[in-house]
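ok so I'm stuck.
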Amino acid sequence: MNLPVRCRVDDGIAILTIESPPVNALAHPVRQALLAAVVAAEADGAVRALLIHGAGRCFVAGADIHEFEAAPREPLLNDVLLRLEACTKPVIAALNGTTLGGGLELALACHYRCATAEVTLGLPEIKLGLLPGSGGTQRLPRVVGASVALDLMLGGTPIGAARAHELGILDRLIGGSDVLEGALAYARELVQARVPPRRLCAASVPGPKPDPAMFAERRARAAREQPGLLAPGYIVDCVEAAGEQPFAAALALSRRRFEECRVSVASRSLRHLFFAERPRAGPLPRPTARRVQRVAVIGAGTMGAGIAISLVTSGHEVVLIDPQPAAVAAGLKRVATILESAAAKGRMSAAEAAAAIGRVTSSAELAAAAPADLVIEAVFESMAVKREVFGALDRICRADAVLATNTSTLDVDEIAAATSRPAAVVGMHFFSPANVMRLVEVVRGAASAPDVVATALATTRHMGKLGVVVGNGFGFVGNRMLYAYGRENQLMLLEGASPAQIDGALRQFGMAMGPNAVGDLAGLDIGYRVRRERKDRPSDPRYYRVADALVEAGRLGQKTARGAYRYEAGSRDPIPDPDVDALIEREAASLGVIRRSFTGEEIVNRCIFALINEGARLLEEGVALAAADIDAIWCNGYGFPRLRGGPMFHADTIGLAAVLAGVEHFAGLYGAKDWAASPLLRTLAGNGQGFVEWDRARTAGARASGGSP
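replied:
not stuck anymore, here's the structure
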């Protein structure tokens, strides 16, 4: 049997190699094997020191996050590290590659630490709503002091080897890339010098000197900057305890606080998104993506320029094409301005910005797209315009070029039908501003070839963005759900809720912005045009009537300083406008809508339950491939609160039976046309299941059958 920890003895040095690919996570079998190896090495009379290192490209990248969903199994990492630290022979950690979370806690429990220059170290547990639960809050302050330890734990950002050596986390920097060879030499030096074990848990290594004012300030800042999370305040508490309590008592406190965080909704949500936002391997080999170096972006407006920026900063060569010379010039200027600003703010070097700008060329002729590996169309959101562009691209582009449309709502199959090669067409729905927003919906048309979809996805990831594959249909996943969410917002406006009341309730729930402020930011005329492109526009005269009336009154949002709110010159702060209240009242009267008062709870439930119900329909139809995909889309593209994990995970948290009851309640009040419960929601609620469980069952079933989930 292959154990995840191998041990061999080299001239009195026991080399314990953690070998649990891909990242040597400290899962239960690893902890068991490591504990057994430490005990055996200490008992071996021929061993004079222990050396722990990780096989492959990293030391240990952390714990096995999957294990956090259940009660911890012994041996706990805490106990393994205490036993390792108590070893009577020197224990040296040889760090290479990534050393994060439990990996750094393991290194800190070793008596001495060495690393190669490319190592990165950190305690990023805060990003999952957790605190270091295996001694990090106690050992790290004893090395670097309380203030620096809090910086590292509350920020969660890794540091490099040079900084770690400067802080004293590393005792020795090893030249070259062979960490094992250098670490063995270091271990032999320690043995020859008869250096004793150095234990951070010892009374001779006191915790940081208490500084009540500093801890109070950090606690207040944590509550202000990361509301809703237990972990930031708990980290401050535990580091403060390191200077006030014996090591064992403060360590026990940190373990209790870790468990409280582990079972909290916020941490469970963040852990759910951690996996939702990562590529999931399917049961079959993935198609090979085509090589993409040269990209043509059609349309030099705000979206096209933003896409170009994302491409050139990731090393692609881009030609920005627009038939209007003024638009091309403005697009190029926008690219240069944004990249130069990024350099001025230290987000990239001046040389990197100049190189990126140098990778952009421009043209007023569509023929300039001929050499491109990938073409991304970002023109006006009109089916007629897009079909015209794709028909021309079909005649111009290479036979092996991938043709992508950035449409946000239109039928990708209809666009593809304008070409003689629909298999080469795919959707790449960027979110605005494209150079800032991380999300891209990769839309798989009915004829899209697997390698074409793979190419769009690979290019998206190469740009550092989150690509989520979705099916074709009006609005795909994100915007189709947005219309269900927005439908209820629009109806409640007619029924008596004000824009500010609705937005305030949803911000209180955790949304980054309310729907009315979002509409003003995006431009109300954009949605107005999209609704007129729809062939299946609902016949209900109340459907988006307020938004349409605002546009027809010339209130387009922030761009005209008037939308659902009014805006002062140079400000984006929404100001409630009595003129809007009067407009809504007139529209309600003309439609015979009886107005009433609303509670914040009703506002939230109508919008969020509509969102969840529509998401369930998308899962039934196969437009969304997984509930986790919906959560990733809504948390990254629409400002859904990450501490709730996305709409579908939130539904699981409150229980699908409660969601179904809410949907049926609204169906009774407002009719089943909009509020018919999704059959999937009804089935899962009846079985006592959730969407996470449904995802797992689908994945397991696909693997068993050899198909795709």
